[in-house]
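Following up on my earlier thread - several people asked me to post the actual chain instead of describing it. Fair enough. Here it is, all 77 residues.
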Amino acid sequence: MHDINKFIKNNLLQKSPVPCIFKTGDKVTFTNDYGVKFHDLTIIGFSMPTEEFLRGRFIYLNSDAYWFPHHADQLTI
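Reply from S.P.:
Thanks for posting it. Predicted structure:
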């Protein structure tokens, strides 16, 4: 848990840098490219403007891969 807290503190914004319906703390379902759904995940933060951000991935979740950003269109509340 220490690593995720350090990652959040050092790398993420608490508010989305672009308009979207999501905010930190929202419970969401992530649907991957193959249609597999991962339920009851929490948004832990948003990207700072980086290369991944420019590709549309800017939302971070409390998953096993918390360091990997997701597209907003892959998430539902």
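Residues 2-76 form one domain. That should answer part of your original question.
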